[in-house]
Specification:
Blueprint: E1 2-3, H1 9-18, H2 34-55, H3 59-70, H4 72-75, H5 80-86, H6 92-110, H7 114-137, H8 163-177, H9 182-206, H10 211-227, H11 232-250, H12 253-260, E2 263-264, H13 269-272, H14 301-304
Helix pairs in contact: 2-10, 5-9, 6-7, 6-8, 7-8, 7-10, 7-11, 8-9, 8-10, 9-10
Length: 335
C-alpha cells in the first residue's frame, strides 16, 4: 500500500489553517470608528489631567495619603490571604500564559493566527506605553515614601501608573476584543472590567500602589485596547508573512521529493498463511501482489468479519459415529 510521510506537529497546525484560507465571515475586525476615536481622545485627556493633578500635588495626592494612612490591610486582615492570590490575576507572566493558551485554541479552531498576534501586539503596546510612563515619572510607592504629603515624583520609583491594573485590563479585555458575537463581547467586557477593578483595589489594599496609580492604570489599559484597531493592518501583514514563510519552507526540494515518493509495503509471509483472516471466496494468490490504497483508513469489513470454520463444532467422542454409517454389533453376553 502507499502511505504518506509522517507530518510534523508544525505541518499539522498549518495544514489545519489551510482548510479555511479566508477569514470566517462571523469574525468581525474592530475598526477605528468615530465613537471609538472620541472615547480614545476623552480618556487621553483624563489621563493627562490625572498626571497633572499628581505633579502639582493637588487634592488627589492628599487622597492618596489618606488612603495609605487608613491601612486597609490592617482594617480587614481576614481577607489578606485571598487578596495575595487574587492579585496574581494582574501579573503579566501567569495571565499571559493562561490567555495565550485559550487564544491558541481559538486560533486552531478558527484557522487564523489573528488571536495570538493580537495578544502579542497588545502586550507590546502595553509594555511600551506603560513602561515608558513608569520610568519617565519615577514615582515612589507608599511603602517607600519619605515625605508626608509629597507626590514622590521623579524619585527613582516605577509604580505610576499601576502595571498590575493596566495588565489586567489589557490581558482580560483582549478576550472581549476578539469575541465572535456581540453577546459574548458584552459578557467578556463585564468580566474583564470586574477582574481589573478587583486587581486594582487589591494593590491599594496591600499598600503597593497609591489610589491614583490604580486609576491611571485603568485608563492606560483602556487606551491600549481602544488603539488596538490601528494595529490590525500590521497584524494581517504579519499573518501573511508567517504563512508565506511556511509555504517556502514546505516547498523546499528535499521536502517535496520526500512527500511525492510512494512507499510500497509487501505483506509478510505470516499474513499469507493465516486462513482465518482471509475473506471467503477470495483467492490466496491475489494477496501476494502489492496493493495500492488511497490515503485513509485501510481496514476493510471483510478482514474484520468472523469466518465460519468448515466442519462440525462438536468435540470428538468415542461413542459417536457419523450419520449414515452402520454401527458395529454389540456383543451378546452369554448366560
Amino acid at each position: 500500500m502507499r502511505t504518506e510521510r509522517n507530518l510534523t506537529r508544525l505541518d499539522r497546525v498549518f495544514a489545519r489553517l489551510d482548510r479555511e484560507p479566508e477569514r470566517p465571515v462571523h469574525l468581525d475586525v474592530p475598526t477605528m470608528s468615530r465613537h471609538r476615536i472620541a472615547l480614545l481622545a476623552g480618556l487621553l485627556a483624563v489621563y493627562v489631567a490625572i498626571v497633572w493633578a499628581v505633579v502639582i500635588t493637588s487634592w488627589l495626592v492628599r487622597l492618596d495619603w489618606q488612603v495609605m494612612f487608613f491601612r486597609p490591610y490592617q482594617q480587614w486582615p481576614e481577607i489578606h490571604a485571598f487578596v495575595d492570590y487574587y492579585v496574581v490575576l494582574g501579573q503579566r507572566g501567569p495571565t499571559a500564559v493562561m490567555v495565550a493558551a485559550w487564544l491558541g485554541w481559538r486560533s486552531w479552531r478558527q484557522h487564523t493566527l489573528r488571536p495570538l498576534l493580537a495578544l502579542g501586539a497588545s502586550l507590546l503596546l502595553l509594555n511600551i506605553t506603560v513602561g515608558a510612563a513608569k520610568y519617565g515619572m519615577g514615582r515612589l510607592g507608599p511603602h517607600y515614601a519619605v515625605t508626608v504629603g509629597a507626590n514622590e515624583m521623579w524619585s527613582g520609583g516605577d509604580i505610576f501608573p499601576s502595571g498590575h491594573t493596566a495588565n489586567a485590563v489589557v490581558t482580560w479585555g483582549i478576550l472581549a476584543y476578539l469575541a465572535s458575537t456581540p453577546r459574548a463581547r458584552r459578557w467578556l467586557s463585564a468580566l474583564s472590567a470586574v477582574t481589573s477593578l478587583g486587581v486594582g483595589m487589591s494593590t491599594v489594599y496591600l499598600g503597593t500602589h497609591w489610589l491614583s496609580d490604580v486609576v491611571l492604570g485603568w485608563i492606560a489599559g483602556l487606551l491600549v485596547l481602544l488603539a488596538l484597531p490601528w494595529c490590525e493592518p500590521l497584524i494581517a501583514r504579519c499573518e501573511s508573512w508567517i504563512l508565506s514563510l511556511r509555504d517556502r519552507f514546505a516547498a523546499r526540494p528535499g521536502r517535496t521529493a520526500a512527500a511525492s515518493r510512494p512507499v510500497v509495503f509487501t505483506p509478510a509471509a505470516a499474513d499469507q498463511d493465516a486462513p482465518a483472516r482471509e475473506p471467503v471466496g477470495t483467492a490466496r494468490s491475489s494477496r501476494a501482489a502489492p496493493v495500492y490504497l488511497a490515503p485513509g483508513p485501510h481496514s476493510t469489513r471483510a478482514e474484520r468479519s468472523p469466518v465460519t470454520p468448515a466442519g462440525s463444532r462438536r468435540p470428538p467422542h468415542s461413542d459417536r459415529h457419523p450419520r449414515g454409517s452402520a454401527s458395529p454389533a454389540r456383543p451378546v453376553s452369554g448366560g
